[in-house]
User: What shape does this take?
Amino acid sequence: MSRQQYHADHAARAQSEARRLLDQRAVLGPRWLAWVASELYQLSPPEFANMVRRELERQSAG
Assistant: This one.
């Protein structure tokens, strides 16, 4: 499967996962950064974790 196809197949899931992680920021406060790092580390495969990481950056900036 090409990178482009993988991205197309999993984009909505990555956006949803990023939103779930961002929703916990207010709840966890200063502990959020360590928590989100651990959540990203557990995601698999690494390509999906990278998609979620990029989506987190995009949603945080927007």
Observations:
- The radius of gyration is 12 Å.
- Residues 12 and 18 are 10 Å apart (CA to CA).
- DSSP finds four helices and no strands in the chain.
